[in-house]
């Protein structure tokens, strides 16, 4: 991993690689497999439905959806994560297709029956207009009546439960994490400074600072509405459909291309 400096690429260009997958190993295929039936249910699709996975990373949700009978296209900026996605997906029925794209510039027009954005795959940029461009690109890529499932952090829960510092040691990697909430270039953000080192040699494996805007539910819904989506149903606290409140672990929203 390239070490961060003020002159380097933005954090989301530096951070997303194989080491990042180790840092978030608890977000695994089993979690995605458990979520797939609910995801397909929210999207209202039958077997063979065409799904766009926006910011697919290492492809765990794309694999789970393909295993569930969907035809999936995953897009992500990280070539290294896409390599992992392809390595892990070669023998799946309806093998997912993976493409390297800037998700602010999606090239699709009316090609998908549904779309998903999982595990906070937006809110990284300096301008709100960049996130709006993502949602508008998804809108263009869907057929009329196609649904978009958005899984984002729950800003109230993040503020209430923030752990300022911690260390994790699994015997192979030592990870030091520092967190803070402060104003970013375009509003309040949660910052997470991550330093990872090999537990045996002490060799540095990664050092970067994540930055994600603390969009409120109202703000995410405004992005969807401005992009041409109609909101469906109620706010959810997880993909399984739990009620959303200040203590919910996630903010999940379903919308439809009208």
Percentage of residues in DSSP E strands = 25-35%
Average per-residue pLDDT, rounded, comes to 92
Helix-strand pattern, N to C? HHHEHEHEEHEHEEEEHEE
Radius of gyration: 18 Å
Strand order, largest beta sheet: 3-2-1-4-5-11-10
Overall geometry comes to globular
Domain unit count? 2
CATH topology of the largest domain: Rossmann fold
Describe the protein's architecture and organization.
The structure is a single chain. 29% of the residues lie in helices and 34% in strands. The chain has 258 residues and is an alpha/beta fold. α3 (29-43) crosses α4 (60-67). The longest helix is centred in the N-terminal third of the chain and has 15 residues, at 29-43. It is globular and about 55 Å long. The chain starts with 10 loop residues before the first helix and ends with a strand.
Keywords:
alpha/beta, Rossmann fold, single chain, 258 residues
Which SSEs are present, and which pair or pack?
Layout: H1 11-14, H2 18-23, H3 29-43, E1 50-54, H4 60-67, E2 71-76, H5 79-88, E3 97-100, E4 112-117, H6 128-141, E5 142-153, H7 155-161, E6 165-169, E7 173-184, E8 187-198, E9 204-213, H8 217-226, E10 229-236, E11 250-257
Parallel strand pairs: 1-2, 1-4, 2-3, 4-5
Antiparallel strand pairs: 5-11, 6-7, 7-8, 8-9, 10-11
Helix pairs in contact: 3-4
């Amino acid at each position: 991993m390239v070490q961060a400096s003020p002159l380097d690429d933005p954090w989301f260009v530096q951070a997303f690689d194989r080491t990042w997958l180790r840092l978030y190993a608890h977000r695994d295929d089993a979690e995605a497999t458990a979520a797939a039936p609910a995801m397909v249910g929210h999207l209202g699709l039958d077997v063979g439905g065409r799904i766009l996975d926006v910011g697919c990373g290492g492809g765990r949700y794309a694999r789970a959806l393909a295993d569930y009978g969907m035809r999936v296209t995953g897009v992500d900026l990280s070539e290294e994560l896409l390599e992992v996605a392809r390595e892990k997906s070669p023998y799946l029925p309806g093998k997912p297709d993976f493409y390297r794209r800037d998700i602010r510039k999606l090239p699709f027009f009316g090609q998908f029956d549904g779309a998903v954005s999982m595990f906070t795959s937006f809110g990284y940029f300096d301008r709100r207009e960049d996130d709006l461009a993502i949602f508008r690109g998804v809108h263009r890529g869907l057929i009329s009546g196609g649904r978009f499932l958005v899984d984002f952090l729950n800003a109230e829960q993040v503020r209430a439960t923030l752990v300022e510092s911690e260390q994790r040691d699994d015997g192979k990697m030592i990870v030091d994490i520092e967190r803070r909430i402060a104003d970013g270039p375009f509003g309040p953000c949660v910052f997470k400074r991550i330093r990872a080192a090999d537990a045996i040699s002490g060799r540095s494996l990664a050092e970067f600072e994540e930055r994600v805007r603390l969009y409120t539910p109202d703000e995410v819904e405004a992005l969807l509405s401005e992009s041409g989506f109609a909101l469906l149903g109620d706010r959810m606290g997880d993909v399984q459909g739990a009620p959303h409140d200040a203590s919910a672990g996630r903010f999940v929203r379903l919308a439809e291309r009208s």
